[in-house]
Amino acid sequence: MSIFNEHYFELKNGFLFAEVTRRVEEYKKQHPDRKVISLGVGDVTRPLPEVCIQAMHKAVDELSRSETFRGYGPEQGYAFLRQAIVDNEFAPLGVNIGIDEVFISEGAISDCGNIVDLFDQDCVIGIPDPAYPVYMDSNVMNGRAKNINILPINQDNGFVPQIPEKHLDVVYLCYPNNPTGLTMNREQLSKWVEYALREKCVILYDSAYVSYIRHEGIPHSIFEIEGAEKCAIEFRSFSKTAGFTGVRCGYTVVPKELTFNSEDGRTISLNYNWNRRQCTKFNGTSYISQRAAAAIYSEEGQRQVRENVDCYMKNADLIRETLKKYGYDVLGGEDAPYIWLRTPDGMGSWDFFDKMLNELSIVTTPGSGFGQSGEGFVRLSSFGRPEDCEEAMKRIEQWKY
Ligand code: PLP
């Protein structure tokens, strides 16, 4: 017997972005004279909003004096941030969330991965394909590879995962979606909530890109849908909203009404047990990060955040429209910072990735890295600098592949 958790051997690929980086580094080594433009990994490029910088400086000063020094904070996060989230993210939507239903994290990726701790080994899991890789990989690492049901997102279902006929215990949904850049409307999301309530299924709803929604009628939170507080957990992040990919801060909403009956008739609360899990395995998010996050909720903070988001969405508009103009088949990018580009002539995702890298020095992300249904697509991210996006589009205009 090996002491190693051999479920790791069941992981399909190396981490997608590591392979992208490897190929790009190799290319740069061979072509040191070429300027590589990345429309690949979804990392932000604009500096933090000024309100966050000021809040962090102030927090550092507080930590430098014994009267205001803080050590370990609450595992669930400081009340000042939890309250600000309730008041600014949910109350304006008419969603009634209590601060003890909000758990501050060091980013959504950890919680999206760690949440699997709450579920039984034999749970039947639904994962859309393509999807953000952590949903699949964290379940595989925990030994649930055999319980995973793939929910394809493709042309046949209009790029919306179909409500399954069979029972699922847990399902992941991510809207606005990474990687397709598409959204779900209220009616589509309501059908999922109805399914979850009927089947006693938990929806793990990842809304890391909520700030990019621009059109009316698109839910900003799953809790806008009636009954979702009885069947859903929502993950959010300050990474793409306020440029916190390096600062690290996010949060997870676990409603108190989300309960289950155990076989021996007890009522089990996921809120209670997530708190229990966090108090055991997590010592809280940095005070400095939490102060920076809270700063975005001032009027000026909201203005600065909007400015960043608008800048990225201007890139998205340029990328989408340029590609369309030259006859490419594109999806997304209207309420999300990603554009989902169908590769021409049925070319494989990695082949088209290599072609764009070698011929245009442009980095994309191969769709197949997000799952089998992503084959034949690449994802373009709008998080680059505007001048780089413009140059990338000029290269594409001249390419006319
Ligand atoms: N969820 C989705 C869909 C993402 O694309 C990302 C980051 O790219 C995250 C979660 C993780 O965000 P964070 O930086 O808060 O860990």
Polypeptide structure, described:
The chain is of the alpha/beta class. The strands form 4 sheets. It has a 7-stranded mixed sheet, with helices on both faces. A 4-stranded antiparallel sheet has the order 11-12-15-14. Strand 3, helix 5 and strand 4 form a beta-alpha-beta unit. The N and C termini lie far apart (54 Å). The model has no long low-confidence stretch (mean pLDDT 96). Bound molecules: pyridoxal-5'-phosphate (PLP).
Tally of DSSP helical segments: 12
Rounded to an integer, what's the Rg over CA atoms?
Answer: 21 Å
Helix/strand/pairing class, anyone?
alpha/beta
Order of helices and strands: HEHHEHEHEEHEEHEEEHHHEEHEEEH
Nearest-integer average pLDDT: 96
What's the shape?
globular
The percent range for helix content is 25-40%
Spans of at least 5 consecutive residues with low confidence:
none
User: What amount of the residues lies in strands?
Assistant: 5-15%
Read across the widest sheet, the strand sequence of neighbours is: 2-8-7-6-5-3-4
* Chemical compounds bound to the protein: pyridoxal-5'-phosphate
Distance separating the two termini:
54 Å
Tell me how many strands there are.
Answer: 15
The biggest sheet, with number of strands, parallel, antiparallel or mixed sense and barrel status, is: 7 strands, mixed
Q: In short, what is this structure?
A:
This protein is α/β, with parallel strands linked by helices and 401 residues long.
